[in-house]
Amino acid sequence: MTTHAPTPAAPHHTNLPDRVTSPGAAWLTSASSYPRSTLATWEARPTAPAVLPCGTAFDVVNVPVVFGRRMLDALWAEGPGSGPVAVQHGRMLLFSAPGTAQRLPALLEWEPRAADVPPLLCHGTSDAVTVPALVPGAAKGPRWVVAPDVRHPWLPGPEVLFWACVRASRLSIFPPADQGANVYDVSRRR
């Protein structure tokens, strides 16, 4: 009888952890003014979300979930991957390098190729975000798509997220219109 070694999973974001590891929790709570007490409180209630400040350990780029999924696909297919990612209330939260919240909107504003990027909410210094629980809890509420699993995760900066936005805006769920087609207004027909 021969045994086969397990095939390693393909490097795609759907295979990444959905629960925060101890080093990942330490990184998240390092954003707090009181990281040890924040971590202790969170570990006492691991199925509860937490509110953490942005601007020191991370910034967050908040996008519509469908557009965020396209960005993730672009980051993983054509780039270095993503940092931690969460979803809540129909929005995707992409954790990014500090300073991204200030720089990314300026990059998008000056680039004509970014005309189709939906409005982004960028959370940086003096902002706070609700992050999902350490472990998956209730089906509703915020949840991790890519949970933090190391003490110093790689976080995309403004340039990386800029190009992910541009690539994602080029993707459409609708086929391009046939420019030579005859189009008739049927709204006035009886």
Strand content: 15-25%
Could you state the order of secondary-structure elements as H and E? HHEEHEEHEEEH
Terminal residue distance: 74 Å
What would the average pLDDT be, to the nearest integer? 83
Number of domains: 1
Taking pLDDT < 50 over at least 5 consecutive residues as the criterion, the unreliable ranges are 1-15, 183-187
Question: Any overview of this molecule?
Answer:
The chain is of the alpha+beta class. It has one domain. Helix content is 29%, strand content 16%. It contains 5 helices and 7 strands, in the order ααββαββαβββα. It has a 5-stranded antiparallel beta sheet with strand order 5-2-4-3-7. A two-stranded antiparallel sheet has the order 1-6. Strand 3 and strand 4 form a beta hairpin. Helix 3 packs across helix 5 and helix 4 packs across helix 5. The longest helix has 14 residues. The chain is globular, with a radius of gyration of 20 Å. It starts with 21 loop residues before the first helix and ends in a 20-residue tail after the last helix. 33% of the residues are buried. The N terminus is likely disordered.
Task: Give me the secondary-structure topology.
Layout: H1 22-29, H2 35-44, E1 50-53, E2 59-64, H3 65-78, E3 85-88, E4 91-96, H4 100-109, E5 121-123, E6 128-131, E7 143-146, H5 158-170
Antiparallel strand pairs: 1-6, 2-4, 2-5, 3-4, 3-7
Features:
190 residues; 7 strands; two-stranded antiparallel sheet; single chain; disordered N terminus; five-stranded antiparallel beta sheet; alpha+beta
